[in-house]
Every structure is written in structure tokens, then in C-alpha cells.
Amino acid sequence: MLRLLTVSSRKLLPRSSWFWLGLAGVVCLAAALRFWGLGRFNTLVFDEVYFAKFGYNYLNGTPFFDAHPPLGKYLIALGIRLGGFNPFGYRWMNALTGSLIPLLIAAIAYELSRRRSYALIAGLFAAVDGLLLVESRYALINIYLLFFGLLGQWLFLLALTTRGAKRWLRLSLAGASLGGAIAVKWNGLGFLLGIYLIWICAWGIQKFISPRSSAFPEVSDSLSEGTPLQKLGEIHFLQLFLYIPIIAFLVYRLEWGLHLRQNPSVGFWQLQQQMLSYHERIGNGPSVHPYCSAWFTWPLMIRPVDYFYQTALTTSEPVPVVGPRLPQNAAKVIYDVHAMGNPALWWLSTAAIVILIWALVRRIEAWFVVEPNAAVHLGQRYMMSGAEFWLPLYLVLNYSANLLPWIDVSRCTFLYHYMPASLYSLMAIAWLVDRWVQSVHPLFRGLGITIIFLVLLAFVFWLPIYLGLPLSPEGFRMRMWFPSWI
């Protein structure tokens, strides 16, 4: 399987209008899917019963306790202020923010690779992921976490391309954006941890592996002047571990201003302790919530979350939002919103991140082989070029930074907690697909094109349960492939 990683690629097409038209098309597709029918369920869906009401509380001055930092609710409140306390009013800001996620994914993909084709494929995959779509269509806060986290990482990558005052400015903006991610949910720290891991890894390569570079031209390639790993070495320890965290903390602290003024009986540090205690007390298991799922089940999407489910006799009836459900054998129409990813994209992304981990391990193993002949053999058969080593390393480390901390979490967790990590596995499959589509070998070109069409077909097939479109009971069961999905 690793031979697929060594397939040569055609040279990237020069800058032209097709890329910008394609990127505009991806953003328009994402916006159309997210804004269509935002108000069709005239009821609070899933955690909207908390977040939409909390946003409204900020507008009318009602004190309340929230287990998460306030930034996401501020943005929902802004939407309510402009659009009113109605389904469209408290959802449109999410739809707008979610429409920009594919653009940010494409921007990061381009900064990692300088390949417009890769950026376009990554943006397209983000536009047709079901979980990203569902989270963008309701007054929930995960989409803001992703937006600020991705924005911070993109700004950090931009800082690598400059020096002097421009670098300081971009590092400041990156720190502010990462602080914004943390001010939505504490697990926004995963985006900052990913930056730390890639910097530490670059430092380790320069210190321990670079001295062996005379025997390995690939090492010299990855650390040569102008490469991302070499530019990472230009970021000073204090810039990364002192300056950026200070900026992030200041933003995080400032975001609490309105909330603390509205709830003056509790101080900042006391409120942080209350939030931590709340999460520690939640517990786990079906008795806590029927859709709890363990972290190791997320990459295979074993237990998605049902956000909305109602039944009706005919499609001519208004969409039901309240009242008892019809008996199972009497229902003729089912309205269901499932917070689940695009299965084809999800499972292929998991396979892609496993492939990249294996490839990185084999390449690092080759650096420590003592026998020259064995080293040459490993290098030719298993290793990517020096320039390509950076991108898989970046994706794998950021994936790990956003997934592995959940191992030690004992409270009830849900599939949507995997969303930050899933973005990097999504970029992993997009990178492999781009390489295969650009390959000179028809077999690999066919494989890449097949995966793109498979992802798009899967999205269309499961689209009714992302948008809550009416389904027959048979159509609903046809899309629930496993009992754990229901």
C-alpha cells in the first residue's frame, strides 16, 4: 500500500482562473447547503435549548451559568440581535461561519503544499462532510471552535513565510485566533498543542537527525533553506511558548468581560473552577445520555448523534416539531437530522491517516538504519521526498493533538468532539487523492477520481438526514447501516 505514496505527480498547473472559479464554487456550494431551509424546524434542536437561550440571555441581561466559555454564545447573540429570536435568527451566524470552513481548509492545504489542486480537493471534501454541515445549520458552538482554531493555524503557517514585523503581526493574530478557539471550548487548546508538537518535532530533527543528513539526502531536502521545517526553526522558543500563549490568554480573559458583568457574584477564577467541576461530575454511559461514545469509536463513526426525529402521516402536513411521536407502524414520513459524517469520506479519511502514520514511521526508521544498503533500500521503497515529509508530519501531529487528549477524559463524550481531529484526516485523504489524480499511472488516476465520486455520491445519498428531508420508513432504514447509528 505504501507504494501509493511514492507515485510521481505531474507538475502543478500554473495559476489560472479555473482554480479561483472552482474555489468560489466550493464556497457557494457550502453556503447554499448551510443556508437552505434554516427555519424549517421551528423548534430548538438538541443543544440549541442551551446555546440559543444563552445567546438571548446576553441580550436581555439575564444571569445564568454556562459550562463553556462565552464566545460562541456571543456570536449567536449577535445573530439574534440582527435577525430576531427565531430559527433563522439564531442559526444564520452558524451557517455563515460554517460556509467559511471549506475556504480555511483549502487555505491551510495550500500553505502546506503550494498545490492548488490539493487545496481545491480538500475544500470540496470539507463542503460535503455531513457533520460539518449539520453543525453549521443549528445554533451550536462547535463550528466556531473549528473556525477560530483553523484560522489560528493558517495565520501561524503564514507567519513562517515572513520575517521581522510581519512575522510578529501574524504570530499575534494567530495567538488571538487560538485564544478565540479556547474561548469557545477548552478543547480549542488542541490546535495550539498541534503547533507545539510540530515545532518540537522540527527541533528534534534538526538536533538529532540532521547530523546524519550526509547519508540521507532526503533529510537535507526537508531541512534546506526555505523549507517549512527549516522555517519552523526560525520561530524562537519564547515566541512560541511565551508570546503566543500570552496573547491567547489575554484574548480568552477579555472574552469573559460581558459574562462577568452580567454575573457579578462569581469571579473569573472561581468560574473556571465551577466549569471544571461541572464537567468532572457529568459521568458517562447510556444512563447519562443515550448517545455517549468513547474516543476510540469516533474514527469509525460507530455512534453518531440523533439531533432531531419526528414522524408524520403525509408530506403535506406541516413539519412536526412538538407532540408525541406516531407509533412506529403508523408513521409514513420520517424527519430525521443525524449528526454524522459522510461515511465514505469519514472511513477513507481514517484509512488515510493510518497510511500516513505508517509511512512516517517507516521513514524515520530508515534514518536510524546503520547498514548503508538497507538504508538506501528503505529510502527508495518507503520514504517520501524531503519536501513531502513536512505535510504528512503536520497532519498526523495535529490529528493526534486533537484526539489523544480525550483518552483521559472520563465524562460522557460525543462524536462531535472528534471534529477538530477529523479535519486533519480529511486533509490526509485529500492529499492522497490529489497525488493519485496527478499520477502518470492510469490505475492511480482512476483510484483518485473514483474516491472523489464515491464521496460525492455518499453525500447525496445521506443528504436527507443532514437536512432533515422527509423520508419513508424504508428510506430511513436504508440509511441506518448499523444498529448503533439509530
From TrEMBL:
Compartmental location: Cell membrane; Endomembrane system
The UniProt record lists the keyword Transferase: yes
Membrane topology reported for the UniProt record: Multi-pass membrane protein
Keyword Cell membrane: yes
Protein O-mannosyl-transferase C-terminal four TM domain boundaries: 268-485
InterPro entries documented for this protein: ArnT-like_N, PMT-like, PMT_4TMC
Assigned keywords, A-Z: Cell membrane, Glycosyltransferase, Membrane, Transferase, Transmembrane, Transmembrane helix
Entry's Gene Ontology cellular component terms: endomembrane system; plasma membrane
Family the UniProt entry places it in: Belongs to the glycosyltransferase 39 family.
Protein name: Polyprenol-phosphate-mannose--protein mannosyltransferase
Species lineage: Bacteria, Bacillati, Cyanobacteriota, Cyanophyceae, Synechococcales
